[in-house]
Amino acid sequence: MLTCNFFGTTEIVIVQHTQCGMLSANAADLERRLRDKGIDTDNIALDPTLPEQTLASGAFSKWIGMMDDVDEACMRTVQAFKDHPLIPADTVVSGWIWEVETRRLRPPTFDAEKRARTDATAAQFGVAEKQPARWGA
Ligand SMILES: [Zn+2]
């Protein structure tokens, strides 16, 4: 936000990757495990230097950002940046997937054939439940 508005940045490139650990578990399970350790995820300091920054109750599992599909997450992140009021409308925003398996950078896609040899979804990591809805409708 600062660089786009004040330091001359005109382009943002978002790169996500296959085989990501953020695909490897369900966020609701991780939140439960933290609660089992006695951590109150509804009342936690996200940034100890900014205690007024808080999450709405029940938002923790969304906030930690686990994902079901790296391509979808990349596309939605690009759109969120494009729609964000603090990113100037003329900033170029693009998203890319680094395929760890092939050492190839490609655009995000839902085309199964184009990502057939990659671990791009949580299901490929054995995660059965869908992540808590992060992106809205
Ligand atoms: Zn990762």
From TrEMBL:
Gene3D superfamilies, A to Z: Carbonic anhydrase
Catalytic activity from the UniProt record: hydrogencarbonate + H(+) = CO2 + H2O
Binding positions (Zn(2+)): 17, 20
Cofactor: binding details: Binds 1 zinc ion per subunit.
Domain of life: Bacteria
An MF annotation (GO) of this entry: carbonate dehydratase activity
Keyword terms: Metal-binding, Zinc
EC number: 4.2.1.1
SUPFAM superfamilies according to UniProt: beta-carbonic anhydrase, cab (SSF53056)
InterPro entries: Carbonic_anhydrase (IPR001765), Carbonic_anhydrase_sf (IPR036874)
Cofactor needs: Zn(2+)
Similarity-based family: Belongs to the beta-class carbonic anhydrase family.
Biological role: Catalyzes the reversible hydration of carbon dioxide to form bicarbonate.
Protein name per UniProt: carbonic anhydrase
Originating organism: Pseudonocardia asaccharolytica DSM 44247 = NBRC 16224
